[in-house]
Each structure stands twice: as C-alpha cells, then as structure tokens.
Design goal:
86% of the residues lie in helices and 0% in strands. The protein contains ten helices and no strands. It has one domain.
C-alpha cells in the first residue's frame, strides 16, 4: 500500500518538469527555461529511481521532450524552429500514445491503475486514447502549417488559449460520442439477452 502511494505521488510529480519548462519559456530567456526544465526532469527521474526502483514512461518522455524542444528553441529563439515546437510536440505525443496502444496497455489505463481510479472500463479509456492520438497529430500538423504560412499572432493564439479552447470542444464531442457508443452497446446487450431467453425457452 505504501509503495502504491509513493508510486502515485511520483507519477503526479512527473508532470512538474514539463510544466516548469513551459512556464519558464514564457517568462524567461530560452536558455534558462531549458536549464531549469532539464534540472527538474533529472532530479525527478533520480528520486523516482531511488524511491520506486523504476522510472515512469511519462517521466522519460518529459525529459526527452524538454531536451529536444529546448534544443530547437536554442537554434532560433524567435525563428521558424522555435515556431515548429508545437508541431513536433503534437507528433511526438500522438506517436507515443499510438505506440502504447499498439504494444498493449495504453497510457490512460496505466494512469488510472497508478492513481487507483479503476471505475472507468479499460475499453472506454482505450477508445478515448485512440481519438486523443489523432487529435494531437492533427493539432501538430495544424500548428506546423501556421508556423510556415500563418502570422505570429495566429500562431501564438493557437499555442496558448486557442489550444485550450479546441481541446475543450474536442472533449465535449468525445463525451457525446462515448455516450452514444455506450447506449448502442447497452441496446445490443439487451437484444442478445432477449434472444438468449427465447433460444433457451422449451
């Protein structure tokens, strides 16, 4: 039980380095953001390894994303490489989610197991994660197009507030689709139960 609690705490902490990097990137020079983000990522991975004897996949992903995106930022603080950050992030997250689904257990299923939230069926989480993989891929491609053909103002809006707005709309549609899918499944199960009764009736 104690190990599970430690595991859960470190899983939540694994989000901290990426959040710190994006905050520092908005408020300070790029070299400070990269340095601060990498130091936190290395510290979090080290402590996680010491206390839990393993490192969460999300912690590793955060470290490599910060390293990669930070390197791109340093190539040109306000140039094209800097603007292509969201494109590479979207493609990387989409690829990671798709890979986890392909090899077996998805990231959302792992998260609910670590956090001890097992009320949502695995097939629902897998269904949602597939759509999230497509969402991040589409968002990354969209941001790449904005970096190449859009204005700086358009790019900045969809990197921040625009992204949150699109994601909220995406989640609303996902909840509607999921409810429709579950209703359809329930009707199917009810039909099967009725047919089963008649087939076993003497």
């Amino acid at each position: 039980m104690e190990n599970q609690k430690i595991n859960k705490n470190f899983f939540l902490l694994s989000f901290l380095p990426a959040m710190a990097y994006w905050y520092l990137e908005e408020s300070y020079p790029v070299n400070i953001a990269v340095t601060g983000g990498l130091i936190l990522a290395i510290l979090e991975i080290t402590l996680e390894k010491l206390f839990t004897k393993h490192v969460h996949t999300l912690s590793k992903l955060n470290f490599f994303l910060i390293l990669f995106l930070g390197g791109l930022s340093l190539l040109g603080e306000d140039g094209l490489w800097f603007k292509l950050q969201p494109f590479f992030t979207g493609v990387a997250i989409s690829g990671f989610l798709a890979y986890r689904l392909f090899v077996g257990k998805g990231l959302l299923v792992e998260m609910t197991e670590i956090l001890g939230q097992s009320k949502i069926p695995d097939f629902v989480l897998t269904y949602l994660e597939k759509h999230m993989a497509f969402f991040f891929l589409a968002y990354g491609i969209f941001m790449g197009a904005l970096a190449l053909f859009g204005t700086t103002g358009q790019w900045a809006f969809f990197k921040t507030l625009g992204f949150y707005g699109i994601f909220v709309v995406f989640m609303v549609f996902e909840m509607i689709l999921l409810r429709l899918k579950l209703k359809k499944m329930m009707k199917y199960e009810q039909s099967r139960a009725i047919l089963s009764r008649f087939s076993h009736h003497p």
